[in-house]
Amino acid sequence: MSVSAEPADALVIFMPSGRRGRFARGTPVLEAARKLGVYVESVCGGRGICGRCQVLPSYGHFAKHAITSAAGHLTPANEVEFRYRKKRALPADRRLSCQARIEGDLVIDVPTDTTTIGQVVRKRAEARDIVRDCAVHLHYVELPPPEMERTLGDLDRLSAHLLSTHGVELVDYDPSVLATAQSALIAGDYKATVAVHSDLRRPAVIGIWPGYREQAFGIACDIGSTTIACHLVDLMSGRTVASVGASNPQIRFGEDLMSRVSYVMMNNDGRHALTAAVREAVNALVQRVAGQGGIAAEDILEATFVGNPIMHHLFLGIDPTPLGQAPFALAVSGALALRAVDIGLALHPGARVYMLPCIAGHVGADAAAVALAEANMGADATLVVDVGTNAEILLGNKHRLLAASSPTGPAFEGAQISCGQRAAPGAIERVRIDPITLEPRVRVIGSDLWSDEDGFAEETTAFGITGVCGSGIIEAVGEMFLAGIIRSDGTIDGTLEARSSRIVQDGRTFSYQLWRKPHALSITQADVRAIQLAKGALYAGARLLMERLGIERVDRIKLAGAFGSHIDPKYAMIIGLIPDCDVSCVTAVGNAAGTGARMALLNRGHRREVEALVSRIEKIETALEPRFQTLFVHAMGFPNSTDAFPELSRAVQLPARAAAPGNDGGPRRRPRTRG
Amino acid sequence: MSVSAEPADALVIFMPSGRRGRFARGTPVLEAARKLGVYVESVCGGRGICGRCQVLPSYGHFAKHAITSAAGHLTPANEVEFRYRKKRALPADRRLSCQARIEGDLVIDVPTDTTTIGQVVRKRAEARDIVRDCAVHLHYVELPPPEMERTLGDLDRLSAHLLSTHGVELVDYDPSVLATAQSALIAGDYKATVAVHSDLRRPAVIGIWPGYREQAFGIACDIGSTTIACHLVDLMSGRTVASVGASNPQIRFGEDLMSRVSYVMMNNDGRHALTAAVREAVNALVQRVAGQGGIAAEDILEATFVGNPIMHHLFLGIDPTPLGQAPFALAVSGALALRAVDIGLALHPGARVYMLPCIAGHVGADAAAVALAEANMGADATLVVDVGTNAEILLGNKHRLLAASSPTGPAFEGAQISCGQRAAPGAIERVRIDPITLEPRVRVIGSDLWSDEDGFAEETTAFGITGVCGSGIIEAVGEMFLAGIIRSDGTIDGTLEARSSRIVQDGRTFSYQLWRKPHALSITQADVRAIQLAKGALYAGARLLMERLGIERVDRIKLAGAFGSHIDPKYAMIIGLIPDCDVSCVTAVGNAAGTGARMALLNRGHRREVEALVSRIEKIETALEPRFQTLFVHAMGFPNSTDAFPELSRAVQLPARAAAPGNDGGPRRRPRTRG
User: Fold this and answer.
1) Cα angle vertex A291, ends A287, A292, to 5°?
2) pLDDT in the model for residue B63
3) Distance from CA of B628 to the nearest CA of A (A)
4) Burial call A272-293: b when 16+ CB within 10 Å, e when fewer
5) pLDDT at B656
6) pLDDT tens digits, B391-429
7) Which of B337, B345, B294 has the alpha carbon at shortest distance from B315?
8) Which of A304, A383, A453, B506 could form a cystine bridge with B511, CB 3.0-4.6 A?
9) The predicted structure's pLDDT at residue B410
10) Where are the beta strands (DSSP E) in B98-212?
11) Is the pLDDT confidence value at A672 over 70?
12) Which residues of chain A have a CB within 8 Å of the CB of B151?
């Protein structure tokens, strides 16, 4: 009641949130942040052990005073902080918020790179900085040992401690933790580290280890019909530690999605077999990626998954049959939060899973992840295409976002092509055809030389020349068109037989012999037709979305996925795979689905973002649109439309004719991985 | 915008909550209740199918008007309601709130017997009315079939429907439902019944069935060290449909709790073996009780469990070792909400479990359930005693509640007694000894005759006379004391050998021969000592709590559990098992732990109540109290204290001496089950 001579409270403002409050002098900055609900990371709960609660006392105008230095407004750096400066890279301008105490009015910046121990590194073209705001947090706790007078259970005391010391409210316990937590507490003499998972639901203790621990991992996984990719991410730093991929073993039940759905429909236990196959494969990948990262699968505390609707449903054990026929009803479209054990995953026993939402019956969580990764659109109309057996197509600007899926079939992946093969050493990936002689030059995966350069034969002996991969087929067809071998309706011109022995009659149609030794590799009329169908479907899907958005041309095109990384955008435009666009505005964005999965893994905000994004996406069902058929028919020829032509020809003229070896206008970017 | 001649809104007040609001005329009463957050049960969501949304339009003073009849203020009863009046017992004064529409100002009573289809029946002495407010609710839904234009998944549409039509917000899906819900929806042509579980966490859909369903069951289970009891409860009516019991198979690992803890400590896989044993037993009981109730185990949607701390921990798979030694630290004391599958229970795949909280290291969830069942205390000091291998003792009034556990050992259950056996046909349960001749008369389970009545021999031939059960031992020792055979220090008086051949020397001590043919059944000196230890511990515990509460005598005593139902309170007082009290104020309350478990099953409010109760209970650890030792030593003799004596002798004089057969003062209540 008595007003003493004590100094008044100090005003503290936290940036960038702008939250402010008055605190007694001597209050640790971390405690002030907690009281205001400002999130400052801390594993050790303010004991000066983890060094993660760094803040930046900032200078600037403040209320009516201008603070030009934080000096005098915070206690000076103490021994703990000096030790961290030396040993663990605490920058000179930063303070540990658990050590620094408020002495006067202050502005405190909470760094957005909440990870202060290691920055996310830009490793590949597709790598992007992801601000870390994980659902999993580690908290180091020191409980008093139990006493007979205290009748609360150890876990109840832990809950109370997490609330009072770490600000974690109303914590639940994972069933796996319930059975083992007390043993862990006892083993660590009542000093332990707990992992608390908090996303939309009540926070839950999902793991507990004796003593101090500073290690938490997650995986981001993209389940494709053909390939499953799995990235191991250090949740404490945000770094992707290792990435592995493997074939989807469901392939033995059916090459494409529809044949797998048929398998489920025809076989009583088909769904369980397919579900078991994909879960086993994911578990095997987890073991491999953990091994590469030098950790155990039990160190993985959270996982995010993306995949097309059928993969998504089969992974969850849901019957995909309704997705195989109109009206293509998803069992569930929204994002899902699950326990890993409930879907048969062998991670940490308490590990959690976040499934990104599906967009529509044909547009899955993989497309949602692409949208998340690439949705930061400006005023420009941007087209994002992810080519697989189905092509996911997103088109939008900052106001609207449209999505559709087009049934391209597997031609772009080399399937259904007579000489097609997957991208591997020995596969032809680049093709140039002399428009006069009709003689080809090629480049194969595994060598940097063109076939007419010295040493090509020697370099390629090891693996031989075995087939043509997806990007090679695109270029072959594109060059055949440019050289006049293919007419605009897609027919191989048989009259050229007279001019070149490369043109070979093949029943009632003709083929182009791309390679001769040791095996002949030919582009047949049927191959060209398969490419026409595939590119027609993709192009028609893109055009349909453009019409819906009311635009005549797109400003940028982003090619996502492995295929998008390998094809030369120029040839994609020559054959009319993508709409006309300034070639310099066509970029490969790599594994955008994987990036989206990693974003959702590392930042809860991105989960809310993708959920909101999916609900506002305008879904176009190509199968429902008569207009799609019209566009499709028109998109089958070469080129698709006259309006595309001028740009296209301008784009291709120079490089197609500049035949100087080593300066051929081929892609400068050498993709490091191949799908 | 235009104010028309439409009648003004009507004011509606719901009782007993008193919530009120204005609604447009024509609004169904159910909708008005929903909007005000007044809970009116409805399975069918207002379609006039389930008949559960009954309300009572009430008469009375209202605002400034006196409404003498609801006529004119509600639409008249319609065809649906007339059908329900005829077929399904809708009382004449009640209305279906989904059919009745507001026509004018109204007071609406929501009946507290929210179950309107069947009333809870008072089946046994211990049965009590429990107002139903289950965590599980059934909702009948009719979704539009999926269409290609609707890209939301079926479950997402179901969530939206549950929100808009049933007012269930932010629903989660149990993993088991996730995989099967769409199939159920399709099977029922998008008409289905869903079970939504909502307690403290987000509501979750835990089950889904095609079409309309009006069936939901739960079990309440009491896991004792010796016996496991399981009650099947119809969640829609509140009725207990069937009850079964079985021995706890953990007995093969150790008769008492401490020997089971030792088993866990000594054997590597001991914990898992004990956990598996109790879970198997519970699953077997579930099958049995479901069979008796004519349902399948999959129809059981929720379960509540009580048990002492070691049973509680072992059932959950928690190492009980810390409970075997000071400081007797519980791993977890708070109430727990779990999925049944996570603790290996084979109920409905989405079934939920609520574990009542434990009170302290020696005072478990069974005692908490007893407290819940009997805690409605008034100004009187009430002692509640639940006798098992440990006796749980609760003492309190409306202001304070104290709890302790006393190590009585298994003597009262007939173990450690030379002629002891469990309560079964052939066991002596009543004993009278003539103080002059020292000749006994007995009654055995399975016959209503005393041994000196005609026909006794014939009636008991079928099973023979095989031993003495717990209540028989209490009476035998009590009568031996009253007849002067036992001295006040508990010694059997050998000098009586001269007076009666029933007194037999037995080494250095003497025995009393209670029965002779076909086998001799004797109460030995060691038997008397075991009873002295047991009753001393129980009495000392009760006295300790009385001292803490600052009272010299208790106003009421409630004897809980099977043992409490069987013993004659008079003899309990004669031997000094319980403190002195007016005998008419000593009552058996039956299986109070089971009642508490059923209360928590049927009413979420009781869950909050028991949680609050446990946190305010003052826990007394007898092992920590030197005073307990003192009291224990003093409580070993007969009688315990002189102040108990006058009351005691007054209570016993008449019946003990009134020897007329058939009017012996024995208990009128015939218990139906025996533990």
Assistant:
1) 120
2) 44
3) 15
4) ebbbbbbbebbebbbebbbeeb
5) 28
6) 899 999 989 999 998 888 778 877 788 998 878 889 999
7) B345
8) B506
9) 74
10) 106-109, 136-142, 172-173, 191-197, 204-210
11) no
12) 330, 333, 359-361, 363, 619, 621
Q: In this structure, what are the phi and psi dihedrals at residue A533, rounded to the nearest 5 degrees?
A: -60, -45
- Domain regions of chain A by residue span: 10-109, 136-210, 217-362, 367-409+540-657, 419-523
Interface probe with B: pick from A143, A150, A151, A265, most Cβ of B within 10 Å:
A151
pLDDT (mean) for B255-259: 82
- Burial of residue A303, with CB atoms counted within 10 A of its CB: 0-12 exposed, 13-18 middle, 19 or more buried: buried
Helix (H, G, I), strand (E, B) or coil at A411: helix
Instruction: Give chain B's length.
Output: 675
Q: Which residues of A46-170 form beta strands (DSSP E)? A: 54-58, 60-62, 65-67, 95-96, 106-109, 136-142
Same fold flag, B10-109 and B217-366: no
Using the predicted structure, report yes or no on whether residue A650 has a pLDDT greater than 80. no
Residue in A152, A334, A363 nearest the CB of B333: A152
Read off φ and ψ for residue B39, nearest 5 degrees. -80, 115
Global ipTM: 0.80
Q: CA–CA distance from A517 to each of A97, A428, A440, A464, A520 (Å)?
A: 70, 13, 13, 9, 6
Please, what sign has the CA dihedral across residues B513, B515, B519, B525? Answer: negative
CB contact under 8 A, A330 and B358: no
For residue A317, list chain B residues with Cβ-Cβ distance below 8 A. 178-179
Query: Which backbone phi and psi does B246 adopt, to 5 degrees?
Result: -155, 160
Nearest CA in chain B to A359: B151
Compute the distance between CA of residue B409 and CA of residue B407 in angstroms, rounded to an integer: 6
Question: What is the pTM (predicted TM-score) of this model?
Answer: 0.82
Name which of A335, A389, A375 is nearest A358 in CA terms: A335
CB A472 within 8 A of CB A479: no
Q: How many C-beta atoms lie closer than 10 Å to residue A88's C-beta?
A: 12
Distance CA A554, CA A568 (A): 18
Q: Which of B400-409, B500-509, B666-675 has the lowest mean pLDDT?
A: B666-675
Is A159's Cβ below 8 Å from some Cβ in B?
A: yes
pLDDT tens across A57-107, in order? 875 444 444 444 556 788 888 888 888 887 767 787 888 888 899 888 888
CA angle B81, B85, B86 (to 5 degrees): 120
Beta strands in A211-274 (DSSP E): 217-223, 227-234, 240-247
**How is residue A267 written in tokens?**
């076989």
Alpha helices in B397-524 (DSSP H): 456-461, 470-482
Helix (H) or strand (E) holding B232: strand B227-234
CATH class as words, domain B217-366: alpha beta
Q: Does B153 sit within 8 Å of A330, measured CB to CB?
A: yes
* Structural fold of domain B374-409+530-657: Nucleotidyltransferase; domain 5 (3.30.420)
Q: Judge whether A343 is closer than 8 Å to chain B, CB to CB.
A: yes
Q: Say whether residue B153 is in contact with chain A using an 8 A CB cutoff.
A: yes
Q: Which CATH architecture has domain A217-362?
A: 2-Layer Sandwich (3.30)
Sign of CA dihedral A448, A452, A454, A460: positive
Closest residue to A333, CB basis, from B145, B156, B326: B156
| Interchain CB distance below 8 Å, B181 and A155 | no
Give the total residue count for chain A: 675
Return the ∠ at Cα B594 (arms to B592 and B596), rounded to 5°. Answer: 70
Topology at the third CATH level for domain A136-210: Ubiquitin-like (UB roll) (3.10.20)
Adjacent-strand bridge partners of A558: A384, A587
* pLDDT exceeds cutoff 80 at B436: yes
**B10-109: what fold?**
Ubiquitin-like (UB roll) (3.10.20)
Q: Determine what percent of chain A is predicted with pLDDT higher than 90.
A: 55
Closest CB from B175, B316, B317 relative to A338: B175
